[in-house]
Amino acid sequence: MTSQSVPKISPLSNFRVVLCQTSHPGNIGSAARAMKTMGITQLYLVNPAQFPDAHATALSTGAADLLENAIVCTSLDEALTGCAYAIGLSARKRQLSHELVNTRVAASKAVEIANNQPVALVFGTEMSGLSNAELDRCQLLAMIPANPEYSSLNLAAAVQVMCYELRMAALENADLTPDITDKINELATLESVEGFYTHLEETLLHIGYLNPAAPKKLMERIRRIFARIRLEKEEVNLLRGILTLTVTPRKHDKY
Amino acid sequence: MTSQSVPKISPLSNFRVVLCQTSHPGNIGSAARAMKTMGITQLYLVNPAQFPDAHATALSTGAADLLENAIVCTSLDEALTGCAYAIGLSARKRQLSHELVNTRVAASKAVEIANNQPVALVFGTEMSGLSNAELDRCQLLAMIPANPEYSSLNLAAAVQVMCYELRMAALENADLTPDITDKINELATLESVEGFYTHLEETLLHIGYLNPAAPKKLMERIRRIFARIRLEKEEVNLLRGILTLTVTPRKHDKY
């Protein structure tokens, strides 16, 4: 994918990721990398155990710029300054009955708001997630619908999933699905596909595969195979080349 | 979410994650953890640089059982044995235009097939992804629509995103309980499709279609055609029947 082919996705620039009381600096680096791969760049750190840190930088690989620009805060309120909406991420249901949605639904809501105003994604500690006091600062609780028998996503993995959903929602929102299929090869016309079927039938009669008295049934099964794909123009030529040589083999020494 | 509230998600048990030539054992451990959080448990390792390994086990945390049950293979073909479909993950566009879709579309297709037969998700090395030879073994190429300016997801992060999408698709699928798809014909296993390719290559050499000095290029184009069709078991038999008669035609009067 070239950068030219992708439209500017403005809501993504309105997101900030807030990591609360992160214990392991390596997780901050991995989270920064995860964010940047999805086009989200604003990182806020509330009372990190250790930051800046060489291990964080090492794990961020090409996203060291996010660490350099990270804003270290002493309270969640400080990190949320200027935001219109805050979404708390949780691996489990909570007693406090916040509005709870899955990450996909949350991303869709978040992008809608981020079209106009800043939105925060708030992640708790590696061990215990968000405290109830922290959750109280959030308007929505989002949950990754993980395996109930083992729902322990690594912090950076949770950041990756949420940021991925934000990017997918932003792309959908922009109604500009990423242009991953660049040039599309020319499809064969239906009449040239029919020409191929005729050629194939003649060839199969020639080699004795079809019963000349009743060739239809097998031809229907063969049509069913090729009908499932849209053959390209060049592919029809390729297949007909094979058929021609099936009837009149070429000597190898012609090469 | 309690286990009672979650329906039995059978397609997830039909997925295997195949990691090719992984350099860092820690990534194997992190990938195992990512898989298990999404309810996917079958891990195949093709020529890992180092395995088993203490660092892998440490990073797998509660998913050490996946490492214990991981199957180490010496070739991708071996890892794909028994699968009906293989999806290659790629961070970038490739020259050979496989059918290329984003991870969400890929997950939806994958779950549809995994309702009945095993499906593989194939990941390349940390540095360079899948080789073209490895991609040739896949029917579909899936891409995470990452930031074009920095698309370098960590291997385990890519596994996390893909497995998350599979789980989301499976949950969605399970919601639509009415079984409106009547009988689905059994797909051919990947090894039987490979058997067909070998048979086809021999036949094309026999009739002089392929240059014996360089058969690969045309075979890649032909693989691209059949990769788009998900061949059924009976269809592989039918096509191989044609190949047999191409080499040794049957007299018409045998009917």
Would you kindly provide a written description of the structure presented here, covering whatever features stand out?
Two copies of one chain form a homodimer. The first copy, chain A, has 255 residues and is an alpha/beta fold. Chain A folds into two domains: 10-173, Alpha/beta knot (3-Layer(aba) Sandwich), CATH 3.40.1280; 190-254, Helicase, Ruva Protein, domain 3 (Orthogonal Bundle). Chain A has helices at 25-37, 54-60, 64-68, 76-79, 103-114, 132-135, 155-173, 190-206, 216-227, 233-247; strands spanning 15-20, 42-46, 71-73, 85-90, 100-102, 119-123, 140-143. Chain A has a seven-stranded parallel sheet with strand order 3-2-1-6-4-7-5. In chain A, helix 5 (103-114) crosses helix 7. The radius of gyration of chain A is 28 Å and the shape is elongated. The interface between A and B is large, with 74 and 71 residues.
Quick rundown:
Chain A has 255 residues and is α/β, with parallel strands linked by helices. Helices cover 42% and strands 13% of the residues of chain A.
Number of strands of chain A: 7
Main beta sheet of chain A: 7 strands, parallel
CATH superfamily of the largest domain in chain A: SPOUT methyltransferase, trefoil knot domain
Number of domains of chain A: 2
Assigned CATH class of the largest domain in chain A = Alpha Beta
Q: Strand-and-helix sequence of chain A, N→C?
A: EHEHHEHEEHEHEHHHH
Separation of termini of chain A?
38 Å
**Strands across the major sheet of chain A, in which order?**
3-2-1-6-4-7-5
* Gross morphology of chain A: elongated
What oligomerization state is this entry in?
homodimer
The percent of residues in helical segments of chain A reads 40-55%
